Amino acid sequence: MGARGQGFTLIEMLVVVVIIGVLLGIALLSPMTANQQVQREANHLLVLFAQARDKALIESNVYGFSIDEHRVCRWWRLPAESQQWVTLDQPPFQPHRLPEGLDLFLESQENGKSFAGDGTTPMVVFFPDYQVTPFRLYLASRTGQKQSFYLITDGLADIERVRE
Q: Could you give the CA distance from residue 126 to residue 18 in angstroms, rounded to a whole number?
């Protein structure tokens, strides 16, 4: 019975290996989740921008996009009869708050300045002739990961997603 008290049992070793595996899995999956969130939001906005541009062309109407100081994305329409911007509430153009942990900056390509809207008018306009206000939209994770994207257009070309 004196020799039995030394060393670790197989069960103790397995428990330690399982704990280490779980901790490594959490550590490895956590940055991927933040990166996937940035990519998912960039793809979502890219699809909505393409839809708004097509909608403006098909309906011969003017549409807009804005972001307010609370990181809420809004979509707008400018009716020809009233000439006052109206917010859209129907899917897929309903207001959308960006998830916590994401940074978003919108730059005008004309003057190179970043700006945030006041939430009363759009910052990006989609015209019926398929033109768009030139812009560069930067999306990144606040968690210190290297994952970031630009959505960019010169106003004439399609909006592109560029990974930084």
A: 54
